[in-house]
Each structure stands twice: as structure tokens, then as C-alpha cells.
Specification:
Spore Coat Polysaccharide Biosynthesis Protein SpsA, Chain A, binds magnesium ion, alpha/beta, 2-C-methyl-D-erythritol 4-phosphate cytidylyltransferase, 12 strands, binds cytidine-5'-triphosphate, Nucleotide-diphossugar_trans, nucleotidyltransferase, 8-stranded mixed beta sheet, 8 helices, 241 residues, IspD/TarI_cytidylyltransf_bact
């Protein structure tokens, strides 16, 4: 029984708008992917990390894992080049798992400040018998469903969603390995339009009819997407020390 993590770091970070892939952008002087890898290794429940690197930047990524381990730990790192979509990058990571792995955590490098405690909560829930587990936070905004926008960009409200039933989900997401592999195989086989509707691995499991469970998420696991998210992450990091 071994738990491995797939750390997806192969995106370009278009919305962040830096001169390098987002996972290599510094937060407190340390690249996002290294923060995320340390949290996975620091959880104590992850034996190996498969880092899915941006194509053309594998050497730069490898430089952050001297001796083939997550710095400060004995957790081994395997590097694989990513794909054109997040889903393809996760699939590349899945293909690199050793035979002894039975539980897989999929984590976004962009959620650099997710804590080791969150990693443990997700892994524990999978080991307790849930085949697919995601962290999620209650939604604080009021959510409206809208119709098509007019030329000025105004859209008519069609209804207000009951937000008490909603959760904004995060990573790491945890899975029984066979479940995640089946979900990815089915996702890859489906029409591309339909497959694109699943923006996370849990969505692929749902499409397969697998029951997905939500455990409490954390503010620190918020994704760095826009420049303001990076500024907020700097504040969260500064508050830790
Ligand atoms: N990701 C990946 N491979 C891709 C696309 C995304 O491994 N082809 C990873 C990113 O590196 C990130 C996570 O998936 O850690 C979430 O994706 P997102 O926040 O959208 O990151 P980017 O795709 O890099 O950003 P953008 O969409 O703004 O270009
Ligand atoms: Mg993206």
C-alpha cells in the first residue's frame, strides 16, 4: 500500500502573465512547484512525487530536486513532461506510477500553499474507503445563473443558486488508483467537447458514476491564477513565519 502524488506543473500560466511557466514563478523566493512538493513530502503519507513539468523546462525543474528527492525529505521525485491540457498532464503522471501504488493524490503546483495537514485529510479519507475525495470550501459569493449577454455585456438573471449546497473544490484530490485510471481512460475515449466539461479529476470520476466525497478545504489551498492571487499568496506566506 503506497500513496503517490502527481504534481501537475506543466501549464504556461497565461493568466498570471509572467515570463516563465507559472509553476516556476517565485513565491517568497521559492518556485510555486517547490512549495507544493514540500507540502506533499511533509505530509508523511506520500512516498513518491511525480512532477509533471512544462515541456522545454524539465532541466530547470530537475534543478529544484537535487539527488532526485524533495529537498529536506527522503521522498523520491520522478519527472515527466506534461501534455497540452491539464487532463493530458495528469495522464502522463499516471503512466509513470510504480506498480505498488494503490492511492494517488493529484495536486496543482498552482495551489502552492496547500498544507501537509490538508494532504493528510484527503489521503486518510481515501484510505477510509472513499474512492474519490476532494477538498472544498463553502461559497461566500451569491451565485446567479444568467442568460446570454447583450452587446453591452449585461446578462439577464435566470435564477439564484442555493449556495449552501455548493462547494468550491481544490486540490490535492485523492483517488483509489484503479478508479482514477478508469476515469481517465473513459474521459480520453469520450468526445472532446464532453471531456472538456470536466475541469478536474473528480469530474472525470463523476462522469463514470463514481461517488465523489468532499472534505473541508482551506484558504491556503487557493489557486494562484491571476496576479492578485500571487499577491494574496505572498501575504499568506508572510503570515506563516
Ligand atoms: N497544468 C498542467 N498541464 C497543462 C495545463 C495545466 O500540468 N497542460 C497544471 C498547471 O501547471 C497548474 C494546474 O494544472 O498547476 C492548474 O492549471 P491552471 O491554474 O489553469 O494553470 P495554467 O494552465 O498554467 O494557467 P493558465 O490557464 O492561466 O495558462
Ligand atoms: Mg490552464
Amino acid at each position: 500500500m503506497t500513496t503517490a502524488a502527481i504534481l501537475v506543473a506543466a501549464g504556461s500560466g497565461t493568466r498570471l502573465g509572467h515570463d516563465r511557466p507559472k509553476a516556476l514563478v517565485a513565491l517568497g523566493g521559492v518556485p510555486l512547484l517547490l512549495h507544493a512538493a514540500r507540502a506533499l513530502a511533509g505530509s508523511g503519507c506520500v512516498s513518491r512525487v511525480v512532477v509533471v513539468a512544462p515541456a522545454g523546462h524539465t532541466a530547470a525543474v530537475a534543478g529544484h530536486f537535487p539527488d532526485g528527492v524533495v529537498p529536506g525529505s527522503a521522498v523520491g521525485v520522478v519527472l515527466v513532461p506534461g501534455g497540452a491540457s491539464r487532463q493530458a498532464s495528469v495522464a502522463a503522471g499516471l503512466a509513470a506510477l510504480d506498480d505498488d501504488v494503490d492511492v494517488v493524490l493529484v495536486h496543482d503546483a498552482a495551489r502552492a500553499l496547500a498544507t501537509p495537514a490538508l494532504v493528510r485529510v484527503v489521503e486518510t479519507a481515501v484510505r477510509a474507503g472513499h474512492a474519490a475525495v476532494v477538498p472544498g470550501l463553502p461559497v461566500t459569493d451569491t451565485i446567479k445563473e444568467v442568460g446570454p449577454a447583450d452587446p453591452a455585456g449585461a446578462a439577464p438573471v435566470r435564477g439564484t443558486v442555493d449556495r449552501t449546497r455548493l462547494r468550491a473544490v481544490q486540490t490535492p484530490q485523492g483517488f483509489v488508483r484503479a478508479t482514477l485510471e478508469a476515469a481517465h481512460a473513459a474521459g480520453a475515449a469520450r468526445a472532446s467537447d464532453e471531456a472538456r466539461a470536466a475541469t478536474d479529476d473528480a469530474g472525470l470520476c463523476e462522469a463514470l458514476g463514481v461517488e465523489v466525497w468532499v472534505v473541508p478545504g482551506e484558504v491556503d489551498a487557493r489557486k494562484v491564477t491571476e496576479p492578485t492571487d500571487l499577491a494574496l499568496a505572498e501575504l499568506l506566506l508572510a503570515r506563516r513565519v
